[in-house]
Specification:
six-stranded antiparallel beta barrel; about 110 residues; Thrombin, subunit H; mainly beta
Length: about 110
Amino acid sequence: MPENIGRMDRLITIEQPTFTQNATGDRAQSWSEFAKVWARYVQLPRGEAVTADQRVAVKDVRYRMRYTPGVTELMRIVDGGREYYINRIEEVGRRESMVIHAEWRDSNT
């Protein structure tokens, strides 16, 4: 059953990493737009993680959207100025829609 388009109320940007060489010959990563899509946002319970002996707030989210070929776990989602890194992608039905599991980390806590 296709996703109800009326519930997809957020316009998100999916970005992919791009790599260039800077003036010193080092490889530099930047991000470029892969697609802009409408999605339904679902916030999961807030958690906490420890990275390099530092506590950070973790915000796990899910985005449900129409199937978009080419989206991978190497990409990220930009929503409202926040960058969410993709952890997992689930295809729903036969390419009817997809659910993207992503997280945002706040090291300022």
